[in-house]
Write a structure and sequence with these properties.
Strand content: 5-15%
Helix content: 40-55%
Shape: globular
Strand order of the largest sheet: 1-2-3-4-5-6-7-8
Number of strands: 8
Mean pLDDT: 96
């Protein structure tokens, strides 16, 4: 039987947060090159898309993985327990080390569909989705969520409901859905949340997420809350400030340009593979969202970014940065 990936990770392990429109197969390979976290998550995949004939190819495309971004967890979302069962049963053969259920995404479209953070408001349905997923797979099942939907103190009822199901891991983004990312993460709640985990499900790995940008931030939080047992730390938007955030390295602008060239090369390779396998190539436009990661904080950066935004393909972008 496959080992539980969460039990094999080192103390204070690191994870690249799942970010929609960001942590696709291309960008994960870029981050693996810059500095590999202990664990990757995919963007989230809609279980109902996978369950439909029309949406299955799109779901499978989102679940493509590369050798460099393993070990990796598939993050899934939805509100139909049967569909969770269906997709969970397929993930092991796709090469994943676990699956994570998104119960924290604040996107209004996802919430309107009953998924993401909206599951905080339908706890019995959320738990049934968890149970159905776990029944269908040998992979460890984990949860990523927020403190609450509207109010901070919702976590006092919400998190114990999850913990009584003994998930393999629980990642808590220390904000509510209403707060989005507009306020600082509530780090002061780490001791109480860690205590809840210890009392209810000590075997569950606890991961903290929110405003963590690099290893220095992790070290500071570990020091400040040294009496609270936290197993892992998830970095999200920190990769936009430094794609080497899982290391202690501060890159030069030349190294960032080199990383951008790698990103462009991987885009072309993936686009060609996608055309062969799924019958379409990748759109260049979404790639532009990444330019600010590599071109910033030096004289002329703003102007170069503006020129890059006018490019229509990777060759034009390469010519500009050369």
């Amino acid at each position: 039987m496959q080992a539980n990936i969460w039990e094999t990770l080192p103390e204070n392990f690191t994870i690249l947060a799942p970010m929609e429109g960001v942590t696709d197969i291309i960008f994960r390979q870029v981050i693996a090159h810059a500095g590999h976290p202990n664990l990757f998550f995919t963007e989230f995949t809609n279980v109902s898309s996978f369950a439909s004939e029309k949406g299955r190819n799109n779901a499978l495309e989102r679940l493509e993985i590369a050798p460099s971004d393993t070990p990796i967890i598939a993050q899934i979302w939805g509100k139909n327990p049967e569909h969770f069962h269906m997709l969970a049963g397929e993930l092991e053969q796709l090469g994943f080390s676990g699956l994570d259920i998104n119960m924290g995404c604040p996107d209004r479209h996802v919430n309107a569909a009953g998924g993401g953070a909206a599951m905080i408001r339908t706890p019995e349905l959320a738990l049934e989705c968890l149970r159905q997923a776990r029944e269908a797979t040998r992979l460890p099942v984990s949860i990523k969520t927020r403190l609450g939907y509207t109010y901070i103190d919702e976590y006092r009822e919400w998190l114990p409901k999850i913990l009584h199901e003994h998930p393999a891991a629980l990642t808590v983004h220390l904000r509510t859905r209403k707060e989005m990312s507009k306020v600082p993460a509530h780090y002061e709640l780490i001791p109480e949340i860690a205590s809840l985990r210890e009392k209810i499900s000590p075997s569950t790995k606890l991961v903290i997420n929110g405003d963590i940008k690099n290893l220095q931030d992790i070290a500071a939080l570990r020091s400040q809350y040294s009496n609270a047992k936290v197993d892992g730390w998830m970095i999200g938007r920190g990769v936009f400030e430094n794609p080497y955030c899982f290391t202690s390295h501060t890159p030069t602008q030349a190294q960032l340009f080199q990383l951008l060239r790698l990103h462009l090369d991987l885009f072309d390779q993936t686009s060609k593979a996608t055309l062969t396998k799924y019958g379409h190539s990748l759109s260049f436009e979404p790639l532009k969202h990444y330019f600010k990661i590599y071109v910033n904080n030096y004289d002329g950066a703003k102007e170069l970014r503006a020129q890059l935004m006018q490019c229509h393909n990777t060759d034009e972008a390469r010519n500009l940065i050369s």
